[in-house]
Amino acid sequence: MIKPKYLINLMVGNILKTRNPLGVRDSSINTWWHGITKRDGEWMVFTGLLYQLTPYLNKIVSYLERFDESRFQSLFPVLNKLPSSLLNFLIFRAPKKEKEETEKILKSIYLLLSKNIDAFYKPESDIYSGIMLYDMGCYDEFEAHVNYVTSKLKSAGIRKLVTIDPHTAYALSVLYPKYGNFDFEVRHYLEILSEEQSYIPKLSFSLGNTLHSIHDSCYLSRYLDLSECPRIILERIGIEYEEVKNSKKNTFCCGGPLETFFPKISNEIARRRVGEFGGKKIITLCPICLATLRRAGGDVRDIASFYDVV
User: Fold this and answer.
1) What is the rounded CA–CA span in Å between residue 265 and residue 210?
2) Radius of gyration over alpha carbons of the chain, in Å?
3) Mean pLDDT, the chain, as a whole number?
4) Residue 206: inside a domain, yes or no?
5) Domain membership of residue 9 as a residue range
6) pLDDT 10s digits, 235-264
7) How many CA atoms lie within 13 A of 62 on its CB side?
8) Distance in angstroms (rounded) separating the CA atoms of residues 51 and 20
9) Do residue 64 and residue 101 come from a single domain?
10) CB distance 233 to 190 below 8 Å
11) Rounded to an integer, what distance in angstroms lies between the CA atom of residue 173 and that of residue 288?
């Protein structure tokens, strides 16, 4: 187990310093939007930076596994004192392939949304949701972060938000109104694409006899009741899938929420979940689920990788 005080102090310090848990500038990790987005419209695509952060967080977990039960955990406070540029170079250099995959996912979601709604993107208004603060029980810090994000969005004149990952969707839809004066209209992008009138292109390439199954996100299925949305979308795209035993509201956690403090236990949970799919290719709806199940040996793709728009 990683001692909670070390990671909590590190994460809180980073979020207070740079507004994201890595302690690096948002501009250094958020580059997918160059050349394809517009800055004004009706619906602001609010990524919450979780897809962008995940390749780096995945790298961090590999380090945490080495620190688990190690006496070197006491070195964690030193990380908060390193310059962000040095920290990025030494620790958080994500594999190029993972970053490219993430950027393609983000572009696919944005471009498909743009065919259905008046979508736009302002990178300076796209801020990490702070969900880790809530998950770690840092409620005062989370409330302060909610107020910061709310103020930035209101000052930019933004009123409608489309989220793209389950954690950010839950934070903005459920938690933000409880912790601040947050009165924005919020929808998850899968809701929009699953509507009857929405445009989704059929898959232009064959998947052969490949068997797929959906890994439902806990937040989307249990707390936001959106488990039917990805199924509607896959059927329209033309992808056949089989349900696993633990699906929809009875989904089995990927283990991701535990990976910070209990990386080995997290991996064991993910390994068991991968085993439930019996060798089928796994379709995920969340960047954390994608990284966690893949790290445990699963053959995993994000649902957005099937959107034939990029």
Assistant:
1) 30
2) 19
3) 88
4) no
5) 4-193
6) 999 999 999 989 999 999 999 877 767 778
7) 13
8) 13
9) yes
10) yes
11) 19
Q: Tell me the pTM.
A: 0.90
Those residues with Cβ within 8 angstroms of residue 61's Cβ, 6 or more apart along the chain or in another chain: 259, 260, 263, 266, 295
Fill in the amino acid letter for 273: R
Residue 285 CB-density burial (10 A; 0-12 exposed, 13-18 middle, 19+ buried)? buried
Query: Looking at the domain assignment, is residue 204 inside a domain?
Result: no
Task: Please tell me the predicted confidence (pLDDT) of residue 90.
Answer: 46
What is the Cα–Cα distance from 219 to 168, expressed in whole angstroms?
10
| Residue 90 sits in the same domain as residue 221 | no
In Å, how far from its chain's centre is CA 292?
12
**At 111, phi and psi to the nearest 5?**
-65, -40
270, two tokens: 């993910």
Summarize pLDDT for 86-111 with one digit per residue, the tens. 455 445 566 788 899 999 999 999 99
Q: What is the DSSP string of 233-249?
A: HHHHHT------SS-GG
> Which residues, including other chains, have CB under 8 Å from residue 281's CB and lie 6 or more apart?
210, 211, 212, 213, 299, 300, 301
Residue 12 domain-assigned (yes or no): yes
Residues 6+ apart with CB under 8 A from 77: 6, 9, 10
Answer yes or no: are the C-beta atoms of 35 and 44 closer than 8 Å: no
